[in-house]
Every structure is written in structure tokens, then in C-alpha cells.
Fold:
Amino acid sequence: MITVIGTGTGAPLDAAARAAVRGAALVVGGLRHLEAAEVPADVRRVVLGPLTPALEAIEQARVARPAIEDEAEDRSAVTTPPARIVVLASGDPGFFGIVRALADRFGPDALDVRPGVSSVATAFARVGIPWDDAVVVSAHGRALRTAVNACRAHPKVAVLTGPGSGPAELGAELARRTATRTLIVATALGDPARERVERVTPAEAAARDWGTAVGVVLCLDEDRAVTTAARTVAGPRTGPGQWALDEDEFAHRDSMITKFEVRALALARLGPRVGDLVWDVGAGSGSVAVECARLGAAVTAVEKTADGIERIRANAAAHGVDVLAVHGAAPTVLSDLADPDAVFVGGGGRELPAIVTACARRARRAVVVSLAALDRVPAVRSALLGAGFDCDGVLLQSSRLAPLPGDVTRLAATNPVFLLWGTRPAAPGVGPSGSTSFTEGVVQ
Structure:
């Protein structure tokens, strides 16, 4: 067995853990874990840095080896059992930790996991806030953008930090994009002499050098961080019970709103999810923006009219979501925005091809365009293809039930709408993204 011991946030090892370390032939862990565990001098130690050498050392220690016994007549037939192995890990090693890599390499049945308290649980405990409804994001060895988008979209987020993805970098991004978040920066959790838990604004976080002892940052909308609603499923709020809401669910001007039939297919092609950033360009009432936010994405809505900006903000507030409303004309205003995962373009006039081109150059995954004018379809399609996207589309023409006198109904046709979408092809040989970087459970 490989005994994986979570050290929590710095508590001394218990008697069983100390006995496991003393009886091991190989102990793997971060330098501070090895020093704190007082590994005996005759026990082989491997200091965790890059993961691959540690896994190779564990693999070699697990292989049975020939024993050296003078009395054995056939030494090739005599073996010793595999070495006893201990892995020391911070926090809970099954939570964004080394257990994933060990289980993948050696199988779950080879592991004896003894978890500690995670840094996330400890940080929330320090500020007295429940966290069964929190979004937890690792930015350790990963791009910070996913954590930033989650913090923009959700009222309670824990970010596991790492070099280049700490409170200063997180604060700098959030200070530009939201005015309603507070950061709780937890430094050296579990260390009586150095532990600090500080409440700062994103701008204050961005202005400081936090050192290397920060393990987790909580990002809170403090007005919404604690609710009395009973929870059944842990994690962020579950997705909405329905989407493609009726037009009367939104404030709009003169029926200038993306109809729900069009919105339904647009949402399917955009694929908004937690950690994504979606642009809604030419947002109008912001119905697409609000629906993407309800599905968990961070959303920026771009609108050139001042009254449209106010409607977007009012609709977002009415549906309890965060949408960043940017007043300005595309494509010029787009240069100041963070790169999106997906873009919905619902307006543009004669500038539409230029807007689609600008969006397609920046979008990581998809661009979806809604347009009523047949004459603009070829130019939009060319813009998507010219940006290297795969392009497809449909003409949506629906008829809704409408009442007639005498308790009967008729079909009332809606205006036909073209919906085009471009998707960025995956690079050859590239599948779902993964990472070999671990936050808790290794060297934190």
C-alpha cells in the first residue's frame, strides 16, 4: 500500500502517521513536510517538486526485488516484499491533490488515504462562513482566467493560488471588472506565528506583495455570501430550471429582443458554463447575456445606447446575476475586454462583418451571430471562415399559438432570423485539457 497522509493546515502528525513514517522505506513529500515529520535518517526521502520523478521513485519502490541471503540456494527465487511507501501532502490530498495522480498511476486499491482538513475549509472556518455552496477553483499551475471568470459570476468562490496566480494578480483582474467583491487572503494557515487572514478590496490586493505563503483566497460578494436556504447539493447554485425565457421576462424596447426560439439555439451553440467568459455584443436588452450568466458564465454585455445599458443592468438585477455592462460601440470598445470563450453578436448594422471578424480573432471557442438581413449573411459567413472557424447556420422561422375569438387558436408567424455560428477547430491531437499540477496534497 501507498499511505497518503494529509497534513491539514500544519497540525503535527498523529501517532499513527508518525508510526507509518518510521516504518517506511520511502517517504515522499515537500521539504517542509519531510522536516516536520522527522523522517529517520535510514529512510529514503524524495522531495516533491516535479511530479514525474516522485511517481517513478514510488514505482521502483513498489516492485519486488531479489533478496541477498547467503543461505539461499536459488537466489533468483527469493524476493522481498515491496517497500512500504508514505506520501506526505498538505491539506486534504484528495481535494485538488496528489491522490488523483497516484490513483491514475497505481489504482485506488493501492492507496491508504488519511485526509487532513483542506485549506479551503480552514479559510472559510476562519471567517465563519459556510462553504457548501462555494465554487472552488484551482489556479495553481493553471491559467488565472478561469478563476477570474468564476469570481465575476458567483458570489462565493475559493481560489487555490500558486506562483503568478496569487491575490495580487487576481485582485488586479477583478478590480477592472467588478465593484462588488471582497477578497479574503489567507496566509500561512495553521502556523501560529505567521497565520494571517485579511479582508481587502481587489485594488488593495493588487497593490501588495503577498509573498509565497498564501494558499487560498476567498472572493465574496458579501451581500450574498451567506443565505439561509437549505442546501441539498453541494457546490454552486444548480443551473436554472429553464432557459430561453419568454420575452416578457425582460425589460425591452419596442420588441427589440432576441426571441426565445433564437435564444434557445444560440445558448446551445455558445455553451456557457462555470469558468467561461461570454461576450454579448450589441446586447440590446441583454437577454442573451442574462441567460448565459444564469448558466454560470461570466458575461460582458456591450451596448452603444445609454438606455440599453440601463436595461441590461436592470434585467441582470431582476434575475439575480452579475453582468458587466460596457457602454460603447463595437468593434472599437472590444479591445479593452478580456478574451472571451464564446461571443454572441446580436447587432451591428453595416459594421457587422468587422465586428464578427474582431470577435472571431479573440474567441477561444465559438462565435454565434443573429441577423435578420439576408444580404449580410454572406459577409458574416466569410468573416467566420476567414478567421479559421468552421461555419454553419440555419434560418429560424417559427409560428406561435395565438388566441382567436371563440376559444380557438391560430398560428402567428414570427420574423425569420438567420443564426450563423463559427467554432474554432481543435488542434490536431489535442483532446480535453488536463494538468499535472497539484495544489493541495503536494508542496503547498
